[in-house]
Amino acid sequence: MQARISRRTALAAGALALGATTIPATATAASARYANPLVRQRADPHITRHTDGFYYYTATVPEYDRLILRRARTIGGLTDAEEVVLWRQHADGPMGAHIWAPELHHVDGRWYIYFAAGDAEDVWRIRMYVLENAAADPYTGEWVEKGQIVTPWDSFALDATTFVHGGTRYLAWAQQEPGIDSNSNLYLAPLTDPWTISGPPVRLSRPTYDWETRGHEVNEGPAVIQRNGRVFLSYSASATDANYCLGLLTASADADLMDPGAWAKSADPVFRSSAANSQYGPGHNSFTTAEDGRTDLLVYHARQYREIDGEPLLDPNRHTRVQALGWKPDGTPDFGVPVPDSR
Question: Is 220 a catalytic residue?
Answer without folding.
Answer: yes
